[in-house]
TetR family transcriptional regulator (Streptomyces cupreus), 442 residues
Amino acid sequence: MTSVDEQARHGGRIRDAARTQAEILDVATQEFARAGYDGARVDEIAARTRTTKRMIYYYFGGKEQLFTAVLERAYGVIREAEQQLDVEHLDPVAAIRRLAEVTFDHHEAHPDFIRLVSIENIHGAEHIAASEKLGKIGSPALDVIRRILAAGQESGLFTADVDAVDLHAMISSFCFFRVANRHTFGALFGRDLVDPAQREHYRTMLGDMVIAYLTAERAAD
Amino acid sequence: MTSVDEQARHGGRIRDAARTQAEILDVATQEFARAGYDGARVDEIAARTRTTKRMIYYYFGGKEQLFTAVLERAYGVIREAEQQLDVEHLDPVAAIRRLAEVTFDHHEAHPDFIRLVSIENIHGAEHIAASEKLGKIGSPALDVIRRILAAGQESGLFTADVDAVDLHAMISSFCFFRVANRHTFGALFGRDLVDPAQREHYRTMLGDMVIAYLTAERAAD
DNA sequence: TGACTAACGTACTAGTTCGTACATTAGCTG
DNA sequence: CAGCTAATGTACGAACTAGTACGTTAGTCA
């Protein structure tokens, strides 16, 4: 009997632990991002999977751990993207601008991730705290920023008093707000921050802002 | 019989519709901010009030409308703060910096409001859309920004191509992120963005950033 | 002062939702 | 190929939760 026949015999499904887990994570990511932690329904996640609720508890233990697993995978994706960052060959100004653009693009491309982070903040980052993986991730982007900043400061292009974590916060703020607060901002000010027609405008604005901050003359502290 | 005796007779409580509604709104604000919309419990809100759940439905109609009422009041507070903004007598640079500082201070002073806005964004701003009040609020801050920008651009201090709504978004991004993402940022990067010892640092950083952006030379579009 | 209504309280229900006990089977391994 | 275990499915329950039916009382006004 062929493998295809096997599948047919069991309704098209074969046992595949990794695949089942991945599918649960996919659907769970969508559901948590859609409705928040408490708004998400375990039954709904199960229903949209080719498996059953039983499997969620079998593999993840419970709703809390499932959400933690979703977060771990989501953060893993951005970490990978950051690791592929290759800006060392650029001059400091171009490198920072490129970094800002990559951050901008990643936020725009992953609104579900942004929502998950918002949700996790509502819950005081307790799942990150409970995760062994997420605690000691470290950020590849941060290392990149440190190197660019050092180069820029040494060459005198950048003002000397800027910290890498602060700069990361500054860039993230803009990218995050634009996606996360899209709805309230749109409702209150009548402007869609994620309007494709405005994409280049805001992308440039972010770069201009960061570079202006880094190259501006400031009163010494 | 004195008023005090009256109160004593009924367990210290007098009938006062306005007061009951205000108390429900106070507690509901805390509860929604604490746990999110779906995480919030109507029973919990009622329990922490001097009245009962029955009154929540009597005055507000339901959980959804209660949350909308909470949002309406929260936005009212920030609108009032913005209306008291008095920076017209300052030069454009000082005026923008003052505006940024006021925004910064307000975000820091009202973390519950920030959480409510995050929550409302998770739900696609549907309560704002459903609210008659919130639709046509308009932002006093936006008018102020428009005037300062016009003055700054006319005097040649500021670059000409900056829009008021965009600048508002820029300032809000930083202030919002610092409070809203405090927990995940702290857990991942080991830095508390709301640490009082760092307050002046970030407050200055925001002003520097905005002024640098507004006064920088840029390639024409 | 009597009666009318807004304001309030109690007790309950219908529906939901996380989680689990129990039963079954696919597929590997010796 | 026998048997063992990881993987899976079904059916159910206990607890929670938004919302309500019904009853009571305070305060005002004719």
